[in-house]
Specification:
The protein has about 230 residues and is an alpha/beta fold. It has a single domain, classed as 3-Layer(aba) Sandwich (Uracil-DNA Glycosylase, subunit E). The protein has nine helices and six strands; from the N terminus they run ααββααβαβααββαα. Strands 1-3-2-4-6-5 form a six-stranded mixed beta sheet, sandwiched between helices. It is globular, with a radius of gyration of 22 Å. Bound molecules: iron/sulfur cluster. The site of iron/sulfur cluster has 14 residues, from α5.
């Protein structure tokens, strides 16, 4: 392409951009906004979403899973607990938090909060078990997150207890570790992005409590804040 043609093309491009900006200003937009990508699951209800997840092959974990662990509990729950990924027991039974860590979570809910486990909703960031309980990989989290985001949008809890770093960092869009995050409420997602956004309470994962029983005291403090918030 010669210089004259290049210049002509450049000027055309500038004119197109100017036209677009003018149009946006006339429509009342004062900032340029990126087009929102709609979730592939935006029209599915909880049962349809679960059915879709049962056949999911979006990431490599489908090849090694025994079951898809979608989530359990009250679809109208005020409180959701969200962990990292299914372990061996969960992978066998198809239900989140049923192993030793799950028993501890059930105790926190039933003995601590005095609520039946069936009254809350429990899920994980990943719906399939990473082999050998290794950490979730970024591409797996990215592929699976539309399921969790749709679960949250459908259940519309008032509070989400994020169990451990992975859940807290994903829900709060941060790289800060759980020790610094825990104990303080923050709104779900980017601030101001959603009206009536659930509040996130990050706390330690029950599996961490099995290794560090002393941290139970801090988790109990966090849970008491959740109970006080729900009672307001
Ligand atoms: S982990 Fe999530 S994205 Fe990956 S196969 Fe399972 S359901 Fe699909």
């Amino acid at each position: 392409m010669n210089r004259a043609n290049l210049k002509k093309e450049y000027l055309q491009l500038v004119a197109t951009v100017r036209e677009y900006v003018q149009e946006q200003l006339e429509l009342g937009f004062t900032e340029l906004q990126e087009p929102q990508q709609e979730s592939p699951y935006a029209t599915l209800d909880l049962l349809q979403l679960d059915a879709d997840a049962q056949g999911c092959t979006r990431c490599g974990l489908h090849a090694t899973r025994n079951t898809v662990v979608f989530g359990v509990g009250n679809p109208n729950a005020d409180i959701m607990f969200i962990g990292e990924a299914p372990g061996a027991d969960e992978d066998r039974q198809g239900e989140p938090f049923v192993g030793r860590a799950g028993k501890l979570l059930t105790d926190i809910i039933e003995k601590g909060m005095q609520m039946p486990r069936a009254d809350v909703y429990i899920a994980n960031v990943l719906k399939c078990r990473p082999p050998g309980n290794r950490n979730p990989q970024p591409d797996e989290v990215e592929m699976c997150r539309p399921y969790l985001e749709r679960q949250i949008a459908l259940i519309q809890p008032k509070v989400i207890v994020a169990l451990g770093s992975f859940a807290a960092q994903l829900l709060l869009n941060t790289k800060t570790g759980i020790t610094a995050l825990r104990g303080e409420f923050q709104p779900y997602g980017v601030a101001g992005q959603r009206e009536n956004a659930p509040m996130i309470m990050p706390t330690y994962h029950p599996a961490y409590l099995l290794r560090n029983p002393k941290a139970k005291r801090e988790v109990w403090e966090d849970i008491q804040k959740v109970m006080a918030f729900l009672a307001e």
